[in-house]
Amino acid sequence: MIAETNFKPGLEGVVAAETRLSSVDGEAGELIIAGFPLEELAPNAAFEEMVYLLWHDRLPDAAELAVFRNRMAAARGLPPAALDLLRAAARDAAPAMDALRMAAGALTGGDDHEADAVRLVACFPTIVAAYRRLLNGQMPLEPRPDLGHAANYLYMLVGETPDQTRTRALETYLNTVVDHGLNASTFAARVIISTGSDMVSAVVGALGALKGPLHGGAPGPALNLVFEIGEAANAETVLRRRLEAGERLMGFGHRVYKVRDPRADVLAAAAEKLFQAGGDRALYELARAVENTALRLLEEYKPGRRLQTNVEFYTALVLHGLGLPAELFTPTFAISRAAGWTAHAFEQIAAGRIIRPQSAYTGTKTRRWTPLAAR
Ligand code: COA
Beta partners for 25? Predict the structure, then answer.
């Protein structure tokens, strides 16, 4: 019999894994990735350097990075079964996260966890870009091995080689959301791999968890709020109306961060650089005005709740600035987080213990079998 006091709904406050991958301090507003402050790592590292760091617990030197980039680039192609699934999904106009889950599930996993991890991380941009093009009635583009992971993703979406500013903005985004403690999808991946299952199964399970709106689904609505406001002069009226109606402002508040989410700052700086270099500068200015007004009004309507801008608000702005449609925001999050999931899976394999919590039975124990005819 399990004492009722042991039951923690949502596992809140339960420590279920040890990790060297990321440290989230919500009171200090601090995110450390594999020993580095996020602010230092995210705007500087290439995504491949980030993946190498998570998997090997150190930054690669130039030769190691070159080998790793080539290995990733060589693993970008999709098996025909995955492309067939994407074509079928496009005929049904399936949501992009479903298409990503289907195509990722068409990869076969085995005993070579590292080879599977390389293939999964390498393939995700190919899957998402191919599906986007199929939905638009276009032919998928072959991945370009001469481009890095981030630049190749942008290339495969639109068929143009992105400039350095756009590539940097996407790499900063991918680095920023690559890992975040024992979030729901990461936990799902660790549970699956802990049974002795394979990397593909762990990552497909994690994708299912990420799809939920409570986890990976908020940046679209955050951007809609900015679009709905339309110009800075309307911000106060629209936001007040929403708060008066008891609605939540998308892109604000966080379960863990009670000061500003450090990822929001890193992405705000990335957005500023991106929009300075071109694009819709007015949208960037509007978003900042909306943010300032929202923070002021949240303090007025929800005093003491410490509601701050979260990562989704600036995710929306950066990804929109890169020309990505809102339907690709969560799949692009998955492109990054696949590196975190696989890194956690490696840690879990090393921990070598199945994750198997208990449940507290709340039903009766006194029922007796009644034959069907007698019920
Ligand atoms: N806008 C307005 N009020 C908000 C709010 C928001 N974005 N987020 C929280 N609140 C309010 C709640 O209504 C609650 O008010 P009350 O005490 O008067 O009832 C109070 O702040 C505490 O909220 P709580 O639900 O305990 O916070 P949480 O930690 O459970 O919620 C989120 C965290 C992220 C789910 C929540 O802040 C939210 O829904 N934000 C908007 C969606 C979003 O941006 N999600 C992406 C997260 S990365």
Answer: 30
Alpha carbons 87 and 213: distance in angstroms, whole number: 26
In tens, the pLDDT along 288-313 reads: 999 999 999 999 999 999 999 988 88
User: Which helix H or strand E contains 23, and what residues bound it?
Assistant: strand 22-25
Q: Kindly give the distance from the C-alpha atom of residue 1 to the centroid of ligand 1, in angstroms, as a whole number.
A: 36
Nearest 5°: the CA angle 128, 331, 327 is 90
Pocket test for ligand 1, best of 307, 311, 337 (most atoms within 8 A of CB): 307
Lowest mean pLDDT segment, chosen from 11-20, 120-129, 146-155, 170-179: 11-20
Closest CA to 225 of 291, 310, 285, 173: 291
SS3 214: coil
- The amino acid that residue 145 corresponds to is P
Q: Is 312 annotated in the active site?
A: yes
Residue nearest to atom 20 of ligand 1 (CA): 305
- Say if pTM beats, i.e. exceeds, 0.90: yes
Pocket lining for ligand 1, CB < 6 angstroms: 218, 248-255, 298, 302, 305, 307, 310-312
255-264 per-position pLDDT tens digit: 888 888 999 9
Q: Of 149, 254, 320, 344, which residue is the catalytic one?
A: 254
* 254 is known as an active-site residue: yes
Closest CA to ligand 1's atom 13 = 248
Contact 346, 55 (CB under 8 A): yes
116, 199 contact by CB (below 8 A): yes
Give me the long-range contacts of 14-20 (CB less than 8 A, separation at least 24): 16/182, 16/187, 16/190, 16/355, 16/357, 17/182, 17/187, 17/190, 17/344, 17/347, 17/348, 17/351, 17/355, 18/347, 18/351, 19/181, 19/182, 19/344, 19/347, 20/57, 20/347
CB 266 within 8 A of CB 33: no
Question: Residue 212: its pLDDT value, please?
Answer: 87
